[in-house]
Amino acid sequence: MPKIVYTEEQGLVQKPGGGISITSSAAEFTGELSVVGAISPGAGGIMKPAPVILAVTGQDHDLTLAANGGRTNVIGNCADDNVVYILPDPLAAGEYYHFVSGVSAADDQKFHITTKTAAAGVLFKGSVTHHDIGETAQTSTAVIANGSSNDFFELDNHAAMSLHFLSLSTSVWYVWGWCASDTACTFADTE
Predict the structure, then answer these.
(1) Predicted TM-score (pTM) above 0.70
(2) Domain containing residue 122
């Protein structure tokens, strides 16, 4: 059995030997710890936090690191075309948001994800694979955020998706994932 070591610099790592070592300025661990079973997401050990069901009303919805960061955010059937989710400006690299589809049907709906400081320097960089379910050939294409001016993402008539946003710095959200809809998703600049 390998030794499990936690440090603030490296996080959780395995090393030769046995036991557990935790080093942190915020917490102290002493005594014996017994763990039975796997320690991994979904295996009964370290569990991911509960998903957040996002509001789908036609207005701006400010997301926060405390309520939405590090969690799966579920977007259901949108009430109209004016549903906007606003990512906060990242405070540091490593902040993470995950979005999945919770729709009951791929209806005529549209949502947007924007940066808090839209048109002022917090941008999207990366790409999303769009699977076009409206084509008989079921075509797929990469939709790319340019990293120099795009701060706006739009998806219309989504049937399924898994979108990831990870801050590379305080001014760039790296985005990746996939979506399935009959209308291609887009990255653009806020006007």
Answers:
(1) yes
(2) 52-188
